[in-house]
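Try this one yourself first.
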């Protein structure tokens, strides 16, 4: 087993040749963060991008009145803080481990030097950036064009697509998120998202089980967008 095999589990790198993976491994640092640990704070100088090797990481922003908005929950293979790659500046959001997590760190300077020498890695990074722009477009659409019910449906459908598990009962979402976290992702209050989920449960669209949600009727959920 090669030292760089863990990189093959990162979607952005799993199609690279072993030689390129070895080069990335040489500039990689793997750090362990306990649940609740802050990886970096919004406003801190951005010097690296990160990949989740294991665990889960919450990416969030805080408004001028102190309200938290969760942008995304990162899981195994996901990348974050790539927005400061090439341009530098400050981290635009806060990253917090919501489970015990292993995180791969790649310093911007090292990546830039590697890209200049390796076109295969450069193409992989370009694909990474393009996917993130697509994700940002979805977030903007949710906030600008949908009400809280539509945003809740959209978030559940996104979770289903990215990490849903097919079961006999439906699509299982093992989110490990409390109602406040989910409300922060949707962009509404905890009471409102709880009411919306309860109504969906009564209508048989989903089934609630603590932090787990089972989507029973995905077509009806799509109709709520």
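Now uncover the answer:
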């Amino acid at each position: 087993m090669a030292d760089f095999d863990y990189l093959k589990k990162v979607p952005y790198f799993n199609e690279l040749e072993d030689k390129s993976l070895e080069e990335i491994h040489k500039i990689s640092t793997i750090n362990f963060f306990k649940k609740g640990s802050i990886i970096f704070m919004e406003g801190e100088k951005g010097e690296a991008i990160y990949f989740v090797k294991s665990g889960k990481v919450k990416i969030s922003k805080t408004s001028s009145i102190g309200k938290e908005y969760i942008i995304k929950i990162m899981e195994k293979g996901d990348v974050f803080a790539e927005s400061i790659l090439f341009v530098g500046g400050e981290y635009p959001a806060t990253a917090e481990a919501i489970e015990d997590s292993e995180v791969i760190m790649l310093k911007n300077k090292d990546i830039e030097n590697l890209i200049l020498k390796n076109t295969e890695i450069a193409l992989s990074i370009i694909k990474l950036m393009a996917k993130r722009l697509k994700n940002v477009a979805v977030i903007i659409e949710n906030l600008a064009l949908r009400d809280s019910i539509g945003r809740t449906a959209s978030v559940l459908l996104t979770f289903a697509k990215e990490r849903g598990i097919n079961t006999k009962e439906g699509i299982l979402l093992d989110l490990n998120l409390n109602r406040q976290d989910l409300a922060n992702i949707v962009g509404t209050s905890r009471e409102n998202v709880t009411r919306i989920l309860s109504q969906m449960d009564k209508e048989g669209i989903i089934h609630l089980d603590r932090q787990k949600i089972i989507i029973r009727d995905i077509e009806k959920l799509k109709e709520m967008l």
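Discussion: DSSP finds seven helices and twelve strands in the chain. The first strand starts at residue 28 and ends at 33.
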